[in-house]
Amino acid sequence: MTEGAPYNLSVLDTLLAVLFPLFLILVAHRLLPPFPWSDIRQLLTGLRIRRAHPFSLNRAYNSYSQYGLLAKQEVATMERSYGTIGRTHKHLGFKIGYPHKLGRLKEAVEMNTVITEAIVKLASQEFSLEGDSFCETTQADLSRMRESLKHFVRDWSQEGTREREKIFRPILRVLGRVSVAERARMRVLVPGSGLGRLAWEISQLGESSVEVLLLVLTPVGGFITRAVEFSYFMILAMRFLFSPATTKANQHQIQPFAHWFSHQRSNEALFRTISVPDVVPRFSPSLELVEEDFLKIHNSSDETASGTPGYDFIVTLFFIDTSINIFSTIEKIHYLLRPGGVWINLGPLLWPDSAQARAELSLDELMHVIQEIGFSVHCGVDIDDVKAPRTIECEYTGDKHAMMRWIYRAEFWVATKGPDSS
């Protein structure tokens, strides 16, 4: 053995010691599921990261807490991307004011952060959240927060009146056929209630006509209404609006459309400020919020106006196509209604993506399932002289100034649970 052999073996051993773990990592990367960065960070830092459900309280609370940070990071990414273009193009961008536009986006983030921080403050008080664990947020969480900002417009702004009127009116007309004297004894369930405007209006549906209700909204008392919502992104925002933190109409200002630069006609439309709420909502003996998965709701022992347990009406608006298992959802609606109870539905069939839905039915298949489960779908209900079920063209959190409109041809129907159904 030569004099340099031990040295050469030592180098070889060191090289193998380095390369072998890398080889194992490469094999694991190819054969095993991805190892999340959050797990690596937890391993290295010892920080406890909670794996929360996408719509859970902790996930929503942490997301709202980090809205300003996440949104500003995204603006910084946009600025870096803009900074990579050539000098001549930057000069053109300067002439049209594009850097100023990015500055306005930062200002919009600051405005929206005021309301997200207020939501966080109230949530920390109501749920005694101490922030003792870190729940990692993602781009999907930022999208959910932006969606909640758009729901402020849809449900609780003057700008959203037209969109609401188109989808609320058919539902409220059916409920409005019940005599005023009976409404205070009848129970209505509204699953997937979002920020709660429809449920609130149903609870206020008293002597006023639907037309007056939609424009004036004078509290007059109506049905005993339970709003059911699963997503805490919606729940926390709704609680904020219904709390003493909101004391007057148009108290809060947001710029909900500022995050989407596509299909915009002008920067003034992009950065327009929306005031919410157009009226001051409150919970009451006739309106309750149930923070639960709809499929876990139990049939109350309280008697309805007919003297039997169950709900007199279940109202689903843009809800049933969120089902992972549509069969379970329809069965649950049937179970919760009293015999002779009425299901009112309006919405499309935009099933969850990425093959999450167990079954993705066509309208024909869906109507067949509804009848098989025990409903009679009425074709003799006159709504504005049109027989139901029928198709209603409508939008959902639309931007009336945008160059693009997403129009749903939503189906509206009224179905009755058989008198002998269990």
Work out the helix count: 15
Instruction: Tell me the Rg in angstroms.
Output: 27 Å
Give the CATH topology of the largest domain. Answer: Rossmann fold
> How do the helices and strands follow one another from N- to C-terminus?
HHHHHHHHHEHHEHEHEEEHEHEEEEE
**Total beta strand runs:** 12
Can you tell me the CATH superfamily of the largest domain?
Answer: Vaccinia Virus protein VP39
Structural class: alpha/beta
Terminal CA distance reads 91 Å
Can you tell me the overall shape? globular
What is the class of the largest domain in the CATH system? Alpha Beta
Helix content: 40-55%
Q: How many structural domains?
A: 2
Query: Unreliable stretches, pLDDT < 50, 5 or more residues?
Result: 29-49, 209-219
- What characterizes the major β-sheet? 8 strands, mixed
For the record, the CATH architecture of the largest domain stands as 3-Layer(aba) Sandwich
User: Please, what is the average pLDDT?
Assistant: 86
- Oligomer designation: single chain
Beta-strand content estimate: 5-15%
